[in-house]
């Protein structure tokens, strides 16, 4: 299944950046899973780490436990104001490096009223 992304960010159309790994202006096609998560780290160049929380069922106790996965995601320069705590929608594409297999498609800003405590 090949997904064409019809909603271009405004910066992707009018931008002057060069990124061959951008899903909007580059030569990569989004195919596979579409996921969402919360941005946790932004210390790499053009790559962010998102956290996906989910519940796993334990049959012995008939209950669920919380689990999470950290996913490395390519962040195109067309998304300029992404910060830690934002919700992002990502799409799967071909392996880009050892750990990166997803690309950011949409960014939803975090709620400003909610305060979060960060680990040191």
From TrEMBL:
Q: Which domain of life is it from?
A: Eukaryota
GO biological process, alphabetically ordered: translation
What PROSITE patterns does its record include?
Answer: RIBOSOMAL_S17
Q: Which terms are listed as keywords in the entry?
A: Acetylation, Citrullination, Cytoplasm, Lipoprotein, Methylation, Palmitate, Phosphoprotein, Ribonucleoprotein, Ribosomal protein, RNA-binding, rRNA-binding
Q: Does the keyword Mitochondrion apply?
A: no
> Which molecular-function annotation in GO is an example for this chain?
rRNA binding
> InterPro entries annotated for this entry?
NA-bd_OB-fold, Ribosomal_uS17, Ribosomal_uS17_arc/euk, Ribosomal_uS17_CS, Ribosomal_uS17_N
Protein name per Swiss-Prot or TrEMBL:
Small ribosomal subunit protein uS17
């Amino acid at each position: 299944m090949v997904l064409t992304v019809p909603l271009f960010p405004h910066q992707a159309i009018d931008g002057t950046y060069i990124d061959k790994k951008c899903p909007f202006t580059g030569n990569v096609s989004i195919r596979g899973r579409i996921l969402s998560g919360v941005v946790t780290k932004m210390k790499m160049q053009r790559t962010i780490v998102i956290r996906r929380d989910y519940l796993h069922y334990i049959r012995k106790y008939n209950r669920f436990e919380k689990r999470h996965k950290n996913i490395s995601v390519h962040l195109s320069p067309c998304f300029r104001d992404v910060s830690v705590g934002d919700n992002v929608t990502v799409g799967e594409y071909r392996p880009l490096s050892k750990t990166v297999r997803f690309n950011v498609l949409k960014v939803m800003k975090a709620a400003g009223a909610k305060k979060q405590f960060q680990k040191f």
